[in-house]
Write a structure and sequence with these properties.
six-stranded antiparallel β-sheet, globular, Jelly Rolls, alpha+beta, 19% helix, 23 strands
Length: 351
């Protein structure tokens, strides 16, 4: 071998160095990472205990008004994605606080939002001129580009989980937003949209007002809870999910908003579920009861003991299973409808 001949490594390094200023990079160095054999999410599973988060929310309540903050929210950031304002690569989650008498001014944006009420009764959110009064366990949507503001006539703090598709719109660089002028006028009676669309009936001459999103923007907990309890008695329950229902857009049968699916499930007392994994990472809010969440990915195993108002995230393709001695109810959301629209959603139910 000629000692003067540069090695393949030297040749390649010189090539990389010389072409770097021209914004060129070799695929063969990154191909495996770009096209993994199976999903390799940078996200980690994480658990936010409500008892630990709540004091910070109350301190935020003393530190800034809802008006000044516009939205007084503590973002639930994935521990592996700090600084990116997201809980998974595609989803944003935060806990929002509103205090008695406060107003959060109206605005609209192309990002879709969901609210899941965690604590307190008597705050409201207005969507396109109709107020929905919040109760714990209610699920409320804010469709893309719908005007929305929040207020509270409650006598104590009200806290809800916000879920938005912010990272998806950021990915497409397709976000728009507009500020309103203070509060929206009340154009409809509270409950009008539910009366129109929420009883397995629909208006004869009315098109759904929010395009691809549900014309119902409040899904009250008493209805979801009743359904889950009725189905719990209709044994056997699913060995992986317990009793799990998805929320629907009554006009289409699809998800309430095009970018996010939402679910509520009940694990009956004594439930010891089988493991599963799915390509849609999901964010959970514990509504009632307690449970144990086992999450594993590769050599990493985590166990979360969860209770009411706790939040946790199970990233893409992490294996999870549920146990609950006393029974519990879980709300969750994910990017499943987007993956289904792209034909890439995958789920494995393991034994
Ligand atoms: C937003 O509009 C709300 O309306 C909550 O309550 C959280 C996070 C980022 C961007 C807009 C709300 C938000 C948000």
């Amino acid at each position: 071998m000629n000692a003067e001949m540069p090695s393949a490594t030297d040749v390649r390094r010189a090539l990389y160095d010389d072409m770097a200023p021209h914004h060129l990079t070799p695929l063969w160095e990154v191909l495996h990472a770009l096209v993994p054999r199976q999903p390799a999410s940078p996200c980690v599973a994480a658990h936010w205990k409500y008892g630990e988060v709540r004091p910070f929310l109350m301190r935020a309540g003393a530190a800034i008004t809802a008006e000044e903050a516009v939205r007084r929210v503590l973002i639930l950031e994935n521990p592996a994605l700090r600084g990116q304002s997201c809980i998974t690569q595609s989803l944003y989650a935060g806990l929002q606080l509103i205090l008695p008498g406060e107003r959060a001014p109206s605005h609209r944006h192309t990002q879709s939002a969901l609210r899941f009420i965690v604590e307190g009764t008597g705050a409201w959110t207005a969507v396109d001129g109709e107020r929905a009064v919040m109760h714990p366990g209610d699920f409320i949507i804010t469709p893309s580009w719908a005007w929305h503001d929040h207020g509270s006539e409650a006598d104590g703090p009200v806290v809800w989980l916000d879920g938005l598709d912010i990272p998806m719109l950021r990915f497409f660089d397709a976000g728009f937003a507009e500020n309103g002028s203070g509060a929206q006028p009340q154009a409809h009676a509270p409950g009008a949209s539910f009366a129109r669309w929420g009883h397995n009936m629909a208006p004869v001459r009315h098109q759904p007002p929010f395009g691809l999103s549900s014309p119902i923007f409040s899904y009250p907990y008493d209805r979801s809870r009743e359904a889950l309890h009725a189905l719990e008695r209709d044994e056997p329950v699913d060995a992986w999910d317990g009793v799990k229902l998805r929320y629907v857009n009554p006009a289409t049968g699809g998800s309430p908003m095009p970018t996010m699916a939402t679910f509520m499930q009940r694990l009956p007392p004594g439930f010891d579920g089988r493991p599963f994994r799915q390509t849609d990472g999901a964010v959970y809010s514990v509504v009632e009861g307690t449970g144990t969440v086992h999450v594993s990915q590769g050599d990493t195993q985590q166990v979360f003991e969860v209770g009411p108002r706790d939040h946790f995230v199970i990233p893409t393709w992490h294996t999870a299973r549920w146990q609950s001695a006393d029974g519990c109810v879980l709300f969750s959301f994910s990017d499943r409808p987007v993956q289904q629209a792209l034909g890439i959603h995958k789920e494995e139910r393991l034994s």
